[in-house]
Amino acid sequence: EKQPTSAKYEYESSAASSERFTEELAKRCLKDTKLDVTIFYDTKIKAVNTGKISSGKESITQLRTNRGVIDVPKGVQVLNAAGAWVPHLMALMGVYAPVYPLKGYAMSVSANDVLFKSKDLKPKDLPTRIVSDKYMYTSRLGDEVRITSVGEFSGWSTHPTPSVEAEFREEAVRQFPQLEQYIREAKTKCGHRPYVADGILLLGRVKEFDNLLVSCGPGSNGWKLAMGSGEIVERLISGQ
Predict the structure, then answer these.
(1) pLDDT value at residue 142
(2) Which positions ≥6 away from 225 have C-beta within 8 Å?
(3) CA 30/CA 27 separation, integer angstroms
(4) Straight-line distance from the first to the last Cα atom of the chain, in angstroms, rounded to the nearest whole number
(5) What pLDDT does residue 108 have?
(6) How many angstroms separate the CA atoms of 112 and 129, rounded?
(7) For residues 226, 230, 232 and 236, what is the CA-based torsion angle, rounded to 10 degrees?
(8) What mean pLDDT value characterizes the chain?
(9) What span, in angstroms and rounded, lies between the C-alpha atoms of 144 and 107?
């Protein structure tokens, strides 16, 4: 009914799932014997202990968590790359970070499930590639049809706001009426994008400390910038 007003052709990119990627990355880090990686799950940093060094700067010595104390030996570098939680952790050390949690909304529909239950629908009736407009972004990754929408400022809550969730579903149904039954039943997931007002990365050493670095990307550009920012952090930590 509505004709497209523009089109974007991305010839090198394809859909991805940050959830699947993160879980797979964690598995590989733990399985690879060449890597020395320890992952602490369900661990929240409650306080950070520091001490003055000869240069006059502070040095992080301990992370106090809900599951005990993590000592930071001399010479060890600490990287704060906690996304929207970066400002919380920086505040524990008396440093302000201009990062704000932008709550995003997402839902997933199984293409296989739809085609199995709705015999009148064919594979060509479902989204096969990225579909985007001003309010919504839909992508296809294998069986998964993932629908995401605009962000909301509401603190660090990850619970959907009922009025926003209802509007999200209505817009999804408007765009994909053939999937209405499944959109109505899909669970809405919310997570935080680290929003930076000017869109510029917070990346590098924190000048007040001798062993603290930060890497926090603007929410919408994080995937695009991750490889480059990761390489810069690696160089800084190794003394380059």
Answers:
(1) 87
(2) 201, 217, 218
(3) 5
(4) 57
(5) 95
(6) 16
(7) 150
(8) 90
(9) 10
Q: Which residues of 20-58 are buried (b: 16+ CB within 10 A; e: fewer)?
A: eeeeeeeeeeeeeeeeeeeeeeeeebeebebeeeeeeeb
Which residue in this structure is represented by tokens 């991305």? 10
Sign of the dihedral through C-alpha 100, 223, 205, 80: positive
CA-to-CA distance for 182 and 184, rounded, in angstroms? Answer: 5
> What are 79's strand-pairing partners?
213
Helices (H), the chain: 18-31, 86-92, 111-117, 162-175, 180-185, 222-237
Q: If you count them, how many residues does the chain have?
A: 240
Model confidence at 212: pLDDT above 70: yes
Q: Which residue has the tokens 């990062």?
A: 99
